[in-house]
Structure formats: structure tokens, C-alpha cells
Amino acid sequence: MSTQVRKAARRLNRVGCCLVLLLYCGLLYAQQATEDAVSALGRLEPEHGIIHVAAALTPQSISGALVKEVLVETNDDVKAGQLLAVIDTVDLVQAELEEAQARYELAVRQAQAAGSSADEACVHARVAENESLRRSALLKKGMAGEEEAEAAAGQAEAMAASCTAAKATAYAAEADIAVAAAHVKRIETELRRSYVRAPVDGRVLKVVAQPGELTAGDGVVELAQVHRMYAIAEVYETDIARVRPGQQATVSSKALAKPLSGTVKRIRPRVAKQDAIGTDPAARKDARIIEVEILLDDAAAAASLTHLQVDVLIRP
């Protein structure tokens, strides 16, 4: 064997040894990383969980209210403020609103009439006062009797009192307008509460109450903000010290087309009993866990799988 061949062989041996060493180190690192990773069961949830959109309680619905109309279906995407359903109290409140508006118009007309009456009374009061002054002047000149002057003065005082009373009535009528306007505003608010609207952008997960059914504590519609999906990992309390915000995580399930990646966003500050129970009969059913919120990178892949049980691996 030539010297060049032997040198080439030695170089290949050294390269091979280096590759084997790097592979061995990589395997050790991967094994160590796997050992340091935290695994847990979990569930998928939309941001802020499921929102039970309910009908507002109004004086008309204290004894119960029926759903009159539902304007959305399951899986519909809705915008904040969009009308979802109408409660049957809407007809009664609409009638009350029309009555309140009519009373407001009546109050306005009564205030106008009271103002006109006050103007008239005050005009008569000024005429009577002028007449009283004229009679007093004539009395001083001896051209009018004292009885006539006193009568004119009394008439002026009476007309002045009538002017004051008419003004007070006009002020009260103006106040009646404000009261009627406030009543209209209150009924308008109650009318708006007969319409069930979406509080946020989201997706309808379920229509709870159909037309003709009573509204109950479960609300009318279940809504979820599926544009941001989380995996809620139930981490054993003995493992929580190895979890911190910012760690990367992998979420997997047979129902998912592929594992999903995510980032630990927060650790909920409460210890609870395990909720997501797996199929292992030897699992600790009464284990104490702490819930960890993991924001998924691909929300669309999990948007239709709220409450799906998943396996979570949080890497160090």
C-alpha cells in the first residue's frame, strides 16, 4: 500500500471517529432533553374558554322569556355586535317604547302650552301694573278716586301672582319633558336587551336554545374565539418546577392531522384535581395538577376540536 493511500485511510478513520463521536453526543443530548421534558395530558380550548351568550334579564322576562328567533347556526363565524337571537319580550318592550315616546311628545306639547300660558299671564300682569301706576298718578293729581287706585293696585298684584304661578307651571312642564325623555331612554335600553348580540368576534360552537324554548342558565349560544387556540396541559405538581413561560411544546392526538407546536404562555396559579383522564388504568386518578396554558402556533388546525384530549410534551 502506498504512502498516500495510508494517509488517506488515516484521515478517513479520523473523520469517521469524529462523526461517531458527534452522533454519540447528539444521542446523549437528545436523551437528556427527553428526560428533562415534561409530559402531560391536556385539552384544547379557545382563548378565554367557551362563552355562554345569554339573554339579558329584564323586568318583562323575570318570569321567563322565550327565544323568538335565532339568526345563526353552528360553525358560523360572527363579529362583535352581530345579532345572534331575539327574545320574545321584544314585542312587549317595543309597545312600551311607543307609549313612552307618545308620552314624551305629550310632555313637549304640554310644556309649550304652559309656556304660552305663562307668557300671556305675564303680559296681563304688565298691563295691570301699568294701569295701577297710571291710576296712582291720576290720584296724585286729583283726577282719580282712591278706591279706583286701590282696585288697580290689587289687580296688578293678582296678575303678578298669576304670572309667577304660570312660570312655575311652565318650569314643571319642562321638567316633565326631561322625565319623559329619561323614560324613553330606559325603555330603549330594555329593548336593546331583548336582542342577543355577540360580545366578541368568534365562532358559534352550539345553538343552545331554539325558537320557542325558554332561555336558561346555559345561555342561547355558545361562542368561542377560535382564532387563538390553547392546549391546557395538566402538569403534575411534582413536575411544575420544570415548566416556565416561553418553553416550546408539542401537542399530539390521533384526531389531529399532525402534531401541533406551541409556546407556554402562563401557568395558572391554582392546584386542582386532574380533569383529563387517560386510558391507563394505573394512572393516578386523584393526582394534583397545575394547568399550563400553551398557545398553539396553528390555531386553524385545532379550531373545530374544542375540548379534545391531547398529549402534551413541554421541552426544556
Sequence of strands across the biggest β-sheet: 1-7-10-9-8-11
- Note the beta-strand portion: 25-35%
Helix content: 40-55%
Beta-strand segment tally: 11
What does this structure look like?
42% of the residues lie in helices and 27% in strands. α2 (89-140) packs antiparallel against α3 (146-192). The protein has helices at 3-36, 89-140, 146-192, and strands at residues 38-53, 67-70, 77-78, 83-87, 195-197, 202-207, 221-236, 248-252, 260-273, 288-296, 309-314. The protein is α+β, with helices and mostly antiparallel strands and 316 residues long. The protein is built from 3 helices and 11 strands, in the order αββββααβββββββ. A 6-stranded antiparallel β-barrel has the order 1-7-10-9-8-11. The chain has a 3-stranded antiparallel sheet with strand order 2-4-5, with no helix packed on it.
Describe this protein with a few key phrases:
single chain, three-stranded antiparallel beta sheet, 11 strands, alpha+beta, six-stranded antiparallel β-barrel
What's the short version?
With 316 residues, the protein is α+β, with helices and mostly antiparallel strands.
Give the SSE layout.
Elements: H1 3-36, E1 38-53, E2 67-70, E3 77-78, E4 83-87, H2 89-140, H3 146-192, E5 195-197, E6 202-207, E7 221-236, E8 248-252, E9 260-273, E10 288-296, E11 309-314
Antiparallel strand pairs: 1-7, 1-11, 2-4, 3-6, 4-5, 6-7, 7-10, 8-9, 8-11, 9-10
